[in-house]
Amino acid sequence: MARARPADGSARERILVAAEELFAAGGFDATPTSRIAERADVPKGLVHYYFRRKADLLTALVERLPDERIETAKVVVPGDIAQSLRRLVAELDRRLSSSVMLSHLLWREADTHTGVRDALQDRYQQLVAQVRAVILAAGVGGLAVADIDSASGLLALAVSYRHSVARHAVDEGPDEMERELEFIASALTARASERGAGTGDELGGALKPGQ
Amino acid sequence: MARARPADGSARERILVAAEELFAAGGFDATPTSRIAERADVPKGLVHYYFRRKADLLTALVERLPDERIETAKVVVPGDIAQSLRRLVAELDRRLSSSVMLSHLLWREADTHTGVRDALQDRYQQLVAQVRAVILAAGVGGLAVADIDSASGLLALAVSYRHSVARHAVDEGPDEMERELEFIASALTARASERGAGTGDELGGALKPGQ
Amino acid sequence: MARARPADGSARERILVAAEELFAAGGFDATPTSRIAERADVPKGLVHYYFRRKADLLTALVERLPDERIETAKVVVPGDIAQSLRRLVAELDRRLSSSVMLSHLLWREADTHTGVRDALQDRYQQLVAQVRAVILAAGVGGLAVADIDSASGLLALAVSYRHSVARHAVDEGPDEMERELEFIASALTARASERGAGTGDELGGALKPGQ
Amino acid sequence: MARARPADGSARERILVAAEELFAAGGFDATPTSRIAERADVPKGLVHYYFRRKADLLTALVERLPDERIETAKVVVPGDIAQSLRRLVAELDRRLSSSVMLSHLLWREADTHTGVRDALQDRYQQLVAQVRAVILAAGVGGLAVADIDSASGLLALAVSYRHSVARHAVDEGPDEMERELEFIASALTARASERGAGTGDELGGALKPGQ
DNA sequence: AATGAATGAGACTTCATTCAT
DNA sequence: AATGAATGAAGTCTCATTCAT
């Protein structure tokens, strides 16, 4: 075996990348560490040198999850919920595109590995909060709390679904997403105006974004 | 090993039940056939007698998926979309409750086993179609095709999510579902009335349910 | 691999024999199960089929220890302690000769494996009791309890030593044993007569052999 | 890893101490060099820097064996064999107490490592010679060579047993030792007087201690 | 039809040892 | 002199699968 120096990335890094790809493709259990070593072009022993147990690979992978926090101000178009959300989704897409496999992997292994599950839930919660924050910031006023919750939940669901699980489902493409997004946005504003003012449950200024 | 009496189920049946539970709990790869035999209380050899390859167990499991087709008429409350959907979801819940594990299992193994993936997609498509059919049947008139698509997609997503994947997510409980359902229903009607009549893209009678 | 039917002993038996020899020769830890399989001429998997964990081999070996209980009456020559002990030792030698390796092995692994240690201690205790019983049965009368205890302990030590540990020590051969045995026997009788009668601590009839 | 200061012992020394403890506790084969490094609080590489092969640790350990030669004159009480032996044993106990682990270790590994075996045998021979020398020096006269040999052998056995192997056996405590010692001593004198003078096999001055 | 012994490929993991620095 | 990354051989154990009965 000639291989010796890092080549493009450190050996450790190459191992992680290989693991991510193989886990995502075939599942954690079905992927032998030997195949990971092979793909990373490192000797088998090195995999266990860096990650004593196979599960440590998963842990390390989870810790590599990019922080997908997006500054609300950057995407919000005041007064236009649909456009704001559209820009949020676009930004999320851009950021997450690098980790679709990883995200997908998480869904598969969440049952069996605590810690993976936790990371997954955190991520989802963060997503909901972000959507919520954008809706509020773009908010036209007069929105009911419950409606915002529903809208955030549904959109987060759709986004998360596309990024993590969609592999199995019929490939809906971006059109579907756009349509649903628009539906949600319009629904929000429609409901707002329909209610007129002062139903009592609309938002005051006190609502802290992200909570 | 004295065990013999078919008693509560044939040996074959017991094996399948055991496999379903174990696969769902730990994943396909992580579940040894020996443990399946053990749980089914059958000799180890019998598992392979009925299912020569381990994957055959998965195949058989998929074929056992209950038909969840629900007669539209049974749940529709004409003129009341929200109520109609609510009854649809309740009925789905009732039927699917017996196969949550199985459903969940399918998500996990869909990547690796064609046939599982196919079954999963069929199921999802069927679900969308059903929601759609109900919306149409309860339909207040003046609904845009795009809106119906979006609404069906979102609700199907929420339902499917709860039944198959939700195990990992924060337990939202039925309230969340109800709120989202209501949001979608109101959105639909709100948008309908808002558009008034005759925008040209509302539904004719031609739309075939299930397509 | 053609091998199939038991040949000379059952496969299980051959595995145990191979394990005993190899463990005794090289120690438990230094002996790979693969070499055991090789020597027993069975496929590697079969070793683990019968003995799931390597340590189970040790356990099984311990359970195979022959019962070395010898009927006191058979060896005792009344009135002649030396001859009685000589015959006891001869009989023990005859019985144990088949398990010297095993005995030796036990000493080595007693530290690390409870259960091995227990078996070893039981064996030793049994040995002491047996020597004691023979001395009593051959007893010339007027023996002090303490002397009998000492004599039993010392002889048991010498025997046990020869059978289990002696491999490392200078090979003393049977002559040494004979000399020590005679020394002990004469010492006993010498001490008895020297004390004369009635020092008060000699044995009554109440002393239960084996206790 | 800040560790640096030689403080209580040089790194090499700390490694040896750690090795001794771990080998004695778990056996040579079962003890990874990495654990030795850990316990000695030195980097893993340093262990192999000082001791290229793992077996070198054993060799070095053997060479560290304290010289247990005791000056005969220091313990002998002329005319009183029992007391002389008692003092010898006490002195041996005092010296050896620091190396019980090491002694024990030697027994375990003697099979597999020549050199360890040799050291062990030397030690034992030395012990026998020492007991012999003490008996002679305290000697009451009229002792038969064979008796002295037997007595030396038995006592050496008992001592060696306590120091090296006794870990497994029922804990007999010092009382047992004392009783056996006394038994041997009395036996010697009893036999001596019993024989009276001139059986012809008593000792001349020729017997070289240590042989 | 049913069973459990038997098989062997291969998984994960450990570890002594080497080597570049 | 000292270190820790790197290596690969080997070990234990698991398991799907086959086979004789």
From TrEMBL, chains A, B, C, D:
HTH tetR-type domain span: 9-69
InterPro entries per record: Homeodomain-like_sf, HTH-type_TetR-like_transc_reg, HTH_TetR
Gene Ontology MF annotations: DNA-binding transcription factor activity; transcription cis-regulatory region binding
Keywords: DNA-binding
DNA-binding region: 32-51
Protein name: Transcriptional regulator, TetR family
Organism: Amycolatopsis marina
Lineage of producing organism: Bacteria, Bacillati, Actinomycetota, Actinomycetes, Pseudonocardiales
